[in-house]
Give the backbone structure.
Amino acid sequence: MDTRLFVLKLFRSLRRNGLRFTLREGLRAIKLSREKDVFDVKYGTDTGGIVQLWNFTIRSPNARFATAYLATDEQALVDAISALPDDPRTLTFIDLGCGKGRALLVAANLGFKQVIGVEFVHELAETAKKNLNILGITNALVEHADAAEYRFPGGGIIVYLYNPFHQEVMQKVIANLKRSLPKKVHVIYCNPTCAALFDSCGFLARLNSPKEIPNIQIWSATTPL
């Protein structure tokens, strides 16, 4: 256990959210860790629960800006991707902070040309790889890397984010995305706490997300990059 990271996270939550919220989220994490995950029971994988990062040794200085891993809701992600105008078979799906890889499994099942997960916790990256192997997914890649340093590929991409980190890292991600100049880009952001950064970045425009997809925002490039 990384005690220093635990203390940093605790004080950050107390400062930003107060004692009541911090206690409530702690109890929620304990509850989720004890519940059986329907997705994992169905597919024989290990993608569920809440995973706190202080349980690991992380070399990146950005660990203090990262959030816990929480598994993506399968249907919400399917609905968000379906709301986009492009055929998944022409795009690469990239999950920044992919954790155990739930979103990668869902995306691969939708027929993306390629699926990429970026995860800076070695143990979580290895778990994601195992989950992909369990389902026999061959067009997927999990990179053990820091999202703040990730260079996006060309072509058409979807960048998926499940609130993986705070604005200190998100600013670097947006700068890298703009610098990489992909042919086409969509951003799907669940629990979008840094939405204002995307709204003001100058090269993405917010789309009207369907009402049946709660707590998800979508952006696309305003002009060919």
